[in-house]
Specification:
Blueprint: H1 3-18, H2 22-45, H3 50-61, H4 64-75, H5 80-98, H6 105-124, H7 132-138, H8 140-163, H9 170-197, H10 199-205, H11 209-221, H12 236-255, H13 259-279, H14 286-296, H15 302-309
């Protein structure tokens, strides 16, 4: 009987608790497997029976929960290179707002191309944890497209039921419905994939969603990104502070190895930023933005009780 096969149940239990990115998780499991195999063979050389040697080696290594906590605290921390890359999309958007460049097509196009390029590279590389914030911005476009398509469909349906006529032809109505479903499928697929890796990383990925979506929808209602009213620039500095706060939150998230601290940072930042963008003029998000923020952001707070119960 091979030692490797005998260790599989323990290692599977450990893998379900690690909550690390796939590449790091594979390295950790391979390292622990090698250590256990060596220890089992060493004990067998001293005359210990195979099953007893397996149980003793696993007992010496520790319970999967304690091992997972230790590995998470070590490997979930990001290097300064990771922190710079993870905070960069927030900082770039903050600069775009601070210098009133968001209404210039060239700068917006450069940012969109950069986000798309980094996200595609990250997806092909297995999505390293430092690229999760980039994925959040990459998902903003299909999310907003889906919301706009659903709003247009709702308006058309309401008009049809009240007047008996559609504001546009039936083929266009069908195309809008298909486009909305397709956009929703893209966002849901990406978000579910991230959640399967780690729900906390999914919360980090979705962190800019309510603020970016509220702002872009406001621009759309006010005339569009390329022709915004002059008064909207008055709130650019306030919005820039929001994305600077998101960059700081991301840096703290990657710098700490304690999961409860990460949960607390994400929860507190989301709550404070929602209040700030709702109540502080001249941001002008208003009550509707608060509702959208609550709906779009998967707050990690409800999971806090679960984590405490499991001493995580």
């Amino acid at each position: 009987m091979r030692v490797t096969a005998d260790l599989d149940p323990y290692l599977r239990a450990l893998a379900g608790r690690l909550r690390l990115d796939p590449g790091t998780e594979r390295e950790v499991l391979l390292e622990l497997r090698g250590h256990l195999e060596e220890r089992v063979l060493e004990l067998e050389a001293f005359g210990v029976a195979r099953q007893d040697a397996l149980e003793l080696a696993i007992q010496e290594l520790g319970h999967p929960d304690s091992i997972a906590r230790g590995m998470y605290s070590i490997h979930s921390k990001g290097s300064w290179r990771d922190i710079i890359l993870a905070t960069l999309p927030h900082l770039l958007l903050a600069l775009l707002l601070a210098f009133h460049l968001w209404s210039r097509f060239v700068w917006v196009a450069i940012l969109v191309v950069l986000v798309t390029f980094v996200s595609l590279r990250a997806w092909r590389a297995g999505v390293p944890k430092r690229t999760y914030p980039w994925l959040g911005y990459a998902m903003a476009a299909p999310t907003i497209s889906c919301l706009l398509a659903l709003a247009t469909l709702s308006y058309g349906a309401w008009l049809f039921f009240t007047t008996g006529a559609l504001p546009y032809s039936l083929p266009i109505f069908i195309l809008l419905a298909a486009f909305g479903v397709f956009s929703l499928w893209i966002v849901a697929s990406m978000l579910l994939w991230v959640i399967r890796q780690d729900w906390l990383l999914a919360s980090l990925t979705a962190l800019p969603f309510p603020f970016l979506t509220s702002w872009l929808l406001l621009l759309n209602w006010q005339g569009g990104l390329l022709a915004p009213p002059a008064g909207l620039h008055e709130s650019d500095y306030g919005r820039a502070l929001v994305f600077l706060a998101l960059a700081l939150t991301t840096a703290v998230y990657f710098k700490t190895g304690q999961r409860l601290i990460k949960i607390g940072v994400l929860t507190a930042t989301t709550a404070v930023m929602v209040v700030y963008t709702t109540l502080v003029p001249p941001l002008g998000f208003g009550l509707l933005a608060a509702i959208r923020s609550s709906a779009l952001t998967p707050l990690p707070a409800p999971r806090l009780v679960t984590c405490v119960r499991h001493h995580w």
